[in-house]
Write a structure and sequence with these properties.
This protein is mainly beta. The chain has one domain: Roll (10 Kd Chaperonin, Protein Cpn10, Chain O), CATH 2.30.33. The chain is built from 1 helix and 8 strands, in the order αββββββββ. It has one helix at 4-8; strands at residues 15-20, 43-49, 53-54, 60-61, 70-72, 79-83, 86-92, 98-99.
Length: 102
């Protein structure tokens, strides 16, 4: 999943680059949803991670997620980044609410 664009962009410290999942456009009953009623997608896939942040004693604390994991994001926040005409978002490791496990 990490293509040429991500070799040129590496998040620093405890930052995580994510790609939001596509919004549901059809209900289970087959009804098409207009864009205004779709809501914000809170699920995303991790694309790149930074090296981690420094602790109080100077040691590096690694980021809690890995590339390829599905995570839950807050409704607001993050920095929008456009790479190769695709939208990605940059979040701090502490802003991530949780991760999905299989």
């Amino acid at each position: 999943m990490a293509g040429k664009a991500f070799r040129k962009f590496l998040p620093l410290f405890d930052r995580v680059l994510v790609e939001r999942c596509a919004a549901e456009t059809v209900t289970k009953g087959g009804i098409m949803l207009p864009e205004k009623s779709q809501g914000k997608v809170l699920q995303a896939t991790v694309v790149a991670v930074g090296s981690g942040s420094k602790g109080k004693s100077g040691e590096i604390q690694p980021v809690s997620v890995k590339v390829g994991e599905k995570i839950l994001l807050p409704e607001y926040g993050g920095t929008k980044v456009v790479l190769e005409e695709k939208e990605y978002y940059l979040f701090r490791d502490g802003d991530i609410l949780g991760k999905y496990v299989d």
